[in-house]
Amino acid sequence: MRQCLIISLILLLSNDICAAPAARTEVDPELTAGYREGDMIISPVQRNGLRADSYRWPDQIVYYYINSNIDRAHREQILIALNKIEVSSCLSFREASKDQKYYVNITSEPGGCFTAVGFQNRVQQMNLQYYPLDEGCFRMGTIMHEMLHALGFYHQQSSADRDKYVRIAVENIQEGKEHNFEKFDDIIVDNFDQEYDYGSVLHYSPYGFSKNGEMTIVPFKAGAEQIMGQRQQMSDRDINKLNIMYKCPRQV
Ligand SMILES: *[C@@H]1O[C@H](CO)[C@@H](O)[C@H](O)[C@H]1NC(C)=O
């Protein structure tokens, strides 16, 4: 049996209430779920796009179940996010029938936003803590972000080549949160020939887990901090990576 660990994510909310550097409490629910990099329940050997085919959803079909305690408006928001992934790829999302053996069990419990990474060949949970629409776990980009984890992707800044694009500013990271900034080996993750992507919906914000309001991920490219951590939509490279991973004919 696969032993699962947990990972998490980052958020921006960088506006300090006090002008002086102050301890900053991470409020992004992608980050506070307390998993390995905030929001991922993962096997220890996986990272940006899992290489192993065993983590791919078979036949490009992703089964899901949206729990009945999720109200209509939130259900719609989830379905819109899934549809955005569907129209950008060759994947199809299907509601799990009673006898479906493997599916993403979409819940809305306390504890932030988190998910298992990659296909697990069993029921795998994806939690979106209840928030008003377009906030917290119910931002469109966050729902897509979590689903991209479930499809087999890790955070952009964990990629093997990230040190060429960003500096992890350890001096600004909250004590004990350094593990959220690990990078992964090329043998395990694949960039699918796409260049490092500051605008990926899977990139942390520059201020994730900051203890002093300063950036924890400092981009080498000037201005890139403006797009890092966006949670509106998949970037073109996110779409390309997804299509290459799932052997879809489509490319942006
Ligand atoms: C989904 O997961 C929750 C939390 O683990 C569990 O209580 C529920 O029974 C699951 N539902 C389905 C249909 O798998």
Task: Describe what you observe in this structure.
Helix 2 links the parallel strand 4 and strand 5. This protein is globular. The chain has a single domain, classed as Collagenase (Catalytic Domain), CATH 3.40.390.10. 17% of the residues lie in helices and 17% in strands. The strands form three sheets. The chain has a seven-stranded mixed sheet. It has a two-stranded antiparallel ribbon with strand order 3-10. The site of 2-acetamido-2-deoxy-beta-D-glucopyranose has 5 residues, from strand 6 and strand 8. 2-acetamido-2-deoxy-beta-D-glucopyranose binds next to strand 6 and strand 8.
Question: Summarize this, please?
Answer:
The chain has about 250 residues and is an alpha/beta fold. Helices cover about 15% and strands about 15% of the residues.
